[in-house]
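testing teh design pipeline on a random one, pls ignore if ur not involved
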């Protein structure tokens, strides 16, 4: 788990999120082609469609396949976010799995 978190950890994102009362969610990306550039694009698109997610905070790593992003917990829980984003990934074969939340 630590390698997935370290791969997408960005001190500036965490600091800005904490100052704004937001949280940062670190996720593992599961799926056959999780490391492919098209997978990164699909994940960024799906996350950007969620109003609670700070689009500028999205970080992605192909190896290990992971992502992180800041979000407003007053608008959505982490579980609700993951349900929405995984639904938005639809037939891509990709799934995001929660690893850690920094608040």
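output:
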């Amino acid at each position: 788990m630590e390698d997935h978190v370290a791969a997408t950890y960005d001190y500036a994102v965490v600091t800005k999120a904490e100052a704004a009362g937001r949280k940062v969610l670190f996720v593992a990306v599961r799926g056959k082609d999780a490391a492919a550039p098209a997978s990164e694009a699909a994940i960024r698109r799906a996350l950007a469609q969620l109003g609670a997610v700070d689009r500028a905070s999205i970080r992605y790593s192909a190896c290990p396949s992971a992502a992180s992003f800041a979000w407003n917990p007053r608008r959505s829980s982490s579980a609700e976010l993951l349900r929405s984003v995984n639904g938005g990934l639809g037939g891509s074969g990709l799934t995001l799995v929660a690893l850690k939340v920094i608040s």
